[in-house]
């Protein structure tokens, strides 16, 4: 009996031990996994950030492109090595770029809170410049190129970074002055004249009021530094030189040196827009403070008073015109006085033009076209003289089918100096004698002195989208500089290989071709 009792107790103990071991091996109950959920409130591509009520969308593009006959990514052969039209001018400029966008949105009792960030990572072909002694230097990240001068380094661009809340936009965004298509009414070319720009964003504090039926009004204060500063040029430091006829394209030149003080007032912008099914209409106005430093090197030299410039722009878009589904016409016109960058926007080089070409004039080495467009010019003891411009740009886009489209586009800008400015630059008689142009270049061969000029641009673009979000583009543009100087000058520039010789003052032309492949995601 004792033996049976012992067997039963031993078996029970063994069962308890086995049961305990099995219980110890049972899995612990896991915390519920939070799966990423689609957010349908703000369109395709948005997802809820796990554990929050905020929706996020990640997007961007990868782009590879090459442009023929330009030393910048795509602004044409206007100045520097690009304008030289010799062995310093790039036959092509190549760029590879990745763009990365982060868009977040959260619904609140005050409306949607939105943040937006857009950055680019680029590597761009740069150019070589001369040292005047038979050797050259790789420019490496010259303004407008952005390669950073490092073979593997490339460059980072912060384009947009802003918060939107209850009608306010705060941060780096496209200027409220610009048309919705910014620089691209029907093109990929960055350097069109004839309207506002800042496609890479400008710091601002803006408020937009919605009145219903597609009508809105925006009031904005935006940073003017770099983006809308075309130059407050001090001619006095050149007029004081004692060596007339100095044959050089120096840092002064006939248009003096830029003489900015610290910024004290942002640009003030008002924009009225009407969005309808047929398209849109927009009217924009900007006030721009021109704040110069000193006539000379110290405070004792004095300074000119501030002068406010202004710009006005009208833009019109017509959609679904009878020529085909999705066809559009975009057009805008602008006038500026002391606010040149609202016409010759920040990505165009048309405001600082120095183009060379051939000549048929006996005794002349080559020809030269000049066009400079600051906001104002002044001389020692004098007030700022504002420079006026007007311009327009537009495009017609036709869709052949869902895969192919072609556009025809163009732009025009005219730059005008007032009579006082022309006296500073060309002298009282308008022949260069006693003016900065004559001091810099001499007057022996000059037959007409006039700093006014025009820029005309016309182009065509064709795009092929064989599959969704993959597009191949060919964009061809012709540009013409209509400058008003005539005769000959003696000049030279060692950095781009131009010897001190006689040059005919003449209109110039340039043709560029952009080929691009872009995959959006």
Walk me through what this model shows.
A hairpin with a 5-residue loop joins strand 1 and strand 2. The protein has helices at residues 2-25, 80-84, 236-239, 419-426, 436-441; strands spanning 47-48, 54-68, 92-108, 111-124, 128-130, 136-138, 155-165, 168-173, 202-212, 215-222, 232-234, 257-258, 267-276, 279-290, 307-319, 328-337, 352-357, 366-372, 376-378, 385-386, 388-401, 404-416, 446-448, 453-467, 470-483, 486-493, 498-505, 508-520. The strands form four sheets. A 16-stranded antiparallel barrel has the order 2-3-4-7-8-9-10-13-14-15-16-21-22-24-25-28. It has a five-stranded mixed beta sheet with strand order 17-18-27-26-23. It has a four-stranded mixed beta sheet with strand order 12-11-19-20. The chain has 521 residues and is mainly β. It has one domain (47-520): Porin, CATH 2.40.160.10. The chain is globular. Mean pLDDT is 89; it is low at 1-24, 141-148 and 240-252.
